[in-house]
Design brief:
Blueprint (H helix, E strand, L loop, with lengths): L9 E6 L6 H16 L3 E5 L7 H6 L9 H5 L11 H4 L1 E3 L2 E5 L17 H17 L3 E7 L4 H9 L2 E7 L2 H14 L3 H4 L2 E7 L6 H7 L5 E5 L6
Parallel strand pairs: 1-5, 1-6, 2-4, 2-5, 6-7, 7-8
Antiparallel strand pairs: 3-4
Length: about 220
């Protein structure tokens, strides 16, 4: 098995813009990264109190042991690396950890007063245990510049911001870069992924359409295959 010290460990896929393939790209990246490195991994869907894409997409409703919120409401400080497989469900060689929405009868609304900063301590414990196990982490994160998303961005080794060619999406991507690039540590971690409706662009056109030095073009049509 490769030494994970040679690889990045925490990858965040994020965007202000919904419905542009962020979750699909993140999921496929996690599966491909696991296949290439043969390392254990975890897929974290951190869409605070929203319906879970990954649970629905993988058909895992009522089949997962715990969500992140279940973990958060438990004695999370006692979690050990060897407890991970008993606490969370592995599916296709990845631990699947949605924020919530793993059970049919489960309401999305929190049952208590939730403060994002409190969740940061539980997440730190979870990420620490995953690191001790030698696992990589892929985080699917709808973006806002509130406490918990910013915490995850700071924890990450690589940030992939997803956008498409619509003017509104390009504008939001530039707004993200303007804000995130104010932090040198965050700026160095950012790569952009443009989800392209058409991929028949030549090298000159591709260079002209880039808005960031580290940017990749992904054919949107292939995401449905």
């Amino acid at each position: 098995m490769p030494n994970l010290e040679n690889f990045s460990k925490i990858f965040v896929f994020t965007s202000f813009h919904g419905g542009i393939g962020k979750s699909t790209i993140a999921e496929r990246f996690a599966k491909n990264y696991q296949a290439q490195t043969r390392c254990s991994g975890a897929f974290l869907e951190m869409n605070l109190f929203s319906p879970s894409y990954i649970v629905e997409h993988l058909g895992l409703r009522d089949k997962l042991k715990n969500s992140f919120m279940d973990f958060f409401m438990s004695n999370w400080s006692g979690l050990r690396a060897e407890d991970l497989s008993d606490t969370f469900t592995e599916f296709e060689k990845l631990l699947i950890i949605p924020f919530t929405d793993v059970r049919s009868s489960e309401p999305l609304k929190p049952r208590f007063s939730f403060h994002e900063t409190d969740a940061e301590f539980a997440m730190s414990r979870l990420l620490s245990c995953l690191s001790q196990k030698g696992s990589f982490v892929v985080i699917d994160l709808p973006l806002s510049f509130s406490s918990f998303p910013l915490f995850l961005l700071e924890k990450s080794d690589v940030i992939y911001y997803i956008y498409n060619s619509q003017p509104s999406s390009i504008k939001l991507a530039k707004r993200f870069l303007d804000d995130a690039a104010r932090s040198n540590s965050m700026k160095e971690k950012i790569s952009l992924i443009r989800n392209m409706a058409e991929m028949n662009v030549n090298i000159i056109d591709e260079a002209e359409c880039r808005i960031w030095d580290k940017e990749f073009l992904v054919p949107m049509a292939q995401l449905s295959k």
